[in-house]
Amino acid sequence: MIELRDLSYSYPDGTPALRGINMKVERGERVAVIGPNGAGKSTLFLHLNGILKPAAGEVIIDGERVDYSKDELIKIRQKVGIVFQNPDDQLFSPTVREDVAFGPMNLGLPEDEVEERVAESLEKVGMSGYENRAPHHLSGGEKKRVAIAGILAMKPEIMVLDEPTTGLDPETADGIIRILLELSREGITVMISSHDVEIISQFAERVFVLNSGELIAEGTPLEIFRDAELIRRASLRLPRTADLLNRLRMAGFEVDVKLTVEETYHELLHLLGGDAYHRLLHFLGEEKQHRLIHLLGEKKYHELLHALKEQ
Ligand SMILES: Nc1ncnc2c1ncn2[C@@H]1O[C@H](COP(=O)(O)OP(=O)(O)OP(=O)(O)O)[C@@H](O)[C@H]1O
């Protein structure tokens, strides 16, 4: 659905931002692009609907090479919707209704179809009833949802969201991810960038790691988060579950890195057998208990014991 071939880009002031990126995303896939600040994630996204034109290389969307003619750009912007990092860059109308209607109106659709799309899109993001509110008076999470609705109203096949959960409380962030998972179930290809490792492991089927404008790795979240050295190089941290198991592994336990809390507990219980809590204490012995406390820190160690006791 998306293919980048040897894509390179430098900003007009000479700052190199992307160097020889090759990337393929299949139709309906959920992918995350991760990497430290300045790695080139936003620059890459701006190439996906022709806002930026590559200095070298090609952008291929749905089998067609973007050729940057006016007609082609209109077509591509219908197909690929981008939700910017800051919703204030996207929302500019006096009311939510007008903002969401802006795209479909520009497509020249009849009024009743525009109305239908506005209602449907606001419903999908849980913002029905906000039609007459002023976008600039909404909360950060609400603005984000209206910005997503504005893109949905264009009925895109690909949605690209630059850091969709940044600055949102955990519950609101989870709500945004649930919306994106639902869109993906409807067949939309969804690509996000994020620094939030918990969100990435919850959302993505495949992860691309960018660093200094280069693609340095790609794989499933598990493949990426198993590679502690890569994570360090990309200035990220491991998800909490992977971090815990990784530390146990370093302490000499035979565990594998898992990403979900459920899988982590299974891994721990598998390690410990039934009656986990008592066996843990017995199994650790004094020396290993000390090593474990040292590695995990006292607080985490007691949290682990407590969690196992609850099982
Ligand atoms: N308009 C611009 N003019 C000049 N340089 C720019 C411009 N926008 C971005 N850059 C530079 O291009 C590089 C890539 O920036 P980009 O915003 O794509 O990174 P990012 O991975 O999205 O970062 P972040 O996680 O901080 O959002 C950086 O070195 C940045 O300073």
Tag the structure with descriptive keywords:
10 strands; 4-stranded antiparallel β-sheet; 13 helices; 19% strand; 6-stranded mixed β-sheet; 311 residues; binds adenosine-5'-triphosphate; 48% helix; Rossmann fold; globular; 2 domains; alpha/beta; ATP binding; single chain
Question: What's this, in brief?
Answer:
This protein folds into 2 domains: 226 residues, P-loop containing nucleotide triphosphate hydrolases (Rossmann fold, 3-Layer(aba) Sandwich); 71 residues, no CATH class. The protein has 13 helices and 10 strands. The two termini are 44 Å apart.
Overview of the molecule:
The chain folds into two domains: 2-227, P-loop containing nucleotide triphosphate hydrolases (Rossmann fold, 3-Layer(aba) Sandwich); 240-310, no CATH class. Helix content is 48%, strand content 19%. It is built from 13 helices and ten strands. The strands form two sheets. A six-stranded mixed β-sheet has the order 6-7-8-3-9-10, with helices on both faces. A four-stranded antiparallel β-sheet has the order 2-1-4-5, covered by helices on one side. The radius of gyration is 23 Å and the shape is globular. The structure holds adenosine-5'-triphosphate (ATP). Residues 11, 13, 15, 17, 35, 37-43 line the site of adenosine-5'-triphosphate (ATP). Residues 11, 13, 15, 17, 35, 37-43 line the site of adenosine-5'-triphosphate. One of its GO terms (biological process) is cobalt ion transport. One of its GO terms (molecular function) is ATP binding.
